[in-house]
Amino acid sequence: MYLCRGIRTSVRTFHHSNPIRQPPPLKAEIVSVGTELLLGEIVDTNASTLSQKLAELGIDVHYRHTVGDNHTRLTEVIATALGRADIVILTGGLGPTEDDLTREAIAAATGQPLVRVPESEQRLREFFAARNRPLADSNLKQADAPVGAVHLENVCGTAPGIFMRWQGRLIFAAPGPPTEMREMAQRSILPILRQELGETDQLFTRSLQLMDIGESQVADLLGDIISAQTDPTLALYAAPANVRIRMATKAPNEAAAEVKFAPVEARIRELLGNHVFGLDSQTMAEVVEQLLRERGRTLAVAESCTGGLLASRITDISGASEVFLAGVVAYANEAKTSLLGVPAEIIAQHGAVSEECARAMAEGVRRVAGADYGLATTGIAGPTGGTDEKPVGLVYMALADERGTVVQKQFWPGTREQFKQRVSQMVLGMLRKRILGVE
User: Fold this and answer.
1) Long-range contacts for 343-352 (Cβ within 8 Å, ≥24 apart)?
2) How far is it, in rounded angstroms, from Cα 274 to Cα 241?
3) What's the pLDDT at 23?
4) Spatial distance between the Cα atoms of 106 and 88, rounded to a whole number of angstroms
5) pTM (two decimals)
């Protein structure tokens, strides 16, 4: 049978009188197929996407494999996965070329021969005819499937996916291109799994975003909570100038999960106070943009060492034009003077990387743009350009408003990318605190 009529039809078609009803969580394995993955030519985003989606369903991913376009090794990996997992999901290797071997490997691992699926062959012929393109014989191998399997519709390409029940296991195969894989997962794979699971607990997460505090300090402050954690569980993740606390629990619905999260979140907020700036995937730029919008305030930025990243982060937000007036990347000293009005004598006496220059940049961009707030960054991103007096990683960040101008001096050695990310995060954090009136 060939699935081409959407989710509802797909789920009904796959209903079985004896579906897998093992106590959750079911065990899953993900197999990413492609020599290009092993060579590092492309990044495997499919496995990450599938792991997240399976976790949301309460399905635990125990193993993830990457295997090249080799029939023997791929068959061995599939056979191993089928020996220890309830669900095996493969991505890649469903194309028309000789090195696309996923169909053949599934057939070999399950002992089921490949057969041509008439509906799939007809769809391929119609696909190529509609585009006035010749149909090569090699394309027709995409219409093959192991005996007992059915094809899953690919709305973004020519290679259909595969769904197969085998000895109490569920086998899925999806195309490798991420767009095709995501669509197939959303339209077919996930609905089938939801049907199989029935009413079971799902994974829910809540994240608290922190700043101006290190991971080790967070661990110390939350030591009692972390050591006593049972449900929900807690984990700490660090990024440049950012720490994230992730809470996770399994519950039948969001309301039940919230009951578990609420007291833990309240205790964390009590201990960490203003270090908590956002929830879940919320960014510092989004938090600042929202605060400006709520208060009817405007912002302009002057950047040297961040090279436009600060303005980019703000303008990534839809509707930012309501609060963001201007961004000036004044990299050269002459630009600082001509565009922002930084006095040449300040640069001559103190240098471009100095408290005095940062102050003048913030005040200058605020004045030029007519904004309520002006932010400025100037520093040495490296890896060259540092001196004993002003080493790589030195940065001055300034904030100007009607109350005056404040400047922070920081030192963050690292890669250029890390430096720019940290500086842009911290200067936005300065603005957040200024707006909220906290220190």
Assistant:
1) 351/390, 352/304, 352/378
2) 15
3) 56
4) 11
5) 0.73
- pLDDT above 70 for 197: yes
Please state the φ and ψ torsions of residue 287, each to the nearest 5 degrees: -65, -45
In three-state secondary structure terms, 432 is helix
Average pLDDT over residues 144-168: 96
Average pLDDT over residues 23-41: 90
Q: Which two tokens stand for residue 64?
A: 């993830």
Half-sphere CA count of 427, side-chain side, radius 13 A: 35
Contact, 117 vs 144, CB < 8 A? yes
pLDDT at 14 over 70: no
Rounded Cα–Cα distance for residues 252 and 324 (Å): 42
Element (H, E) at 291: helix 284-295
Distance of alpha carbon 305 from alpha carbon 311, whole angstroms: 12
CB of 123 closer than 8 Å to CB of 3? no
211: enclosing H helix or E strand: none
199 pLDDT more than 90: no
A 10 A CB-CB count for 127 gives 15
Distance of CA 5 to the CA centre of its chain: 30
SS3 231: coil
How far apart, in whole angstroms, are the C-alpha atoms of residue 14 and residue 329? Answer: 58
Q: Is 146 helix (H, G, I), strand (E, B) or coil?
A: strand
| H-run or E-run covering 22 | none
Handedness of CA 431, 432, 434, 438 (dihedral sign): negative
Dihedral (CA of 322, 324, 325, 326) sign: negative
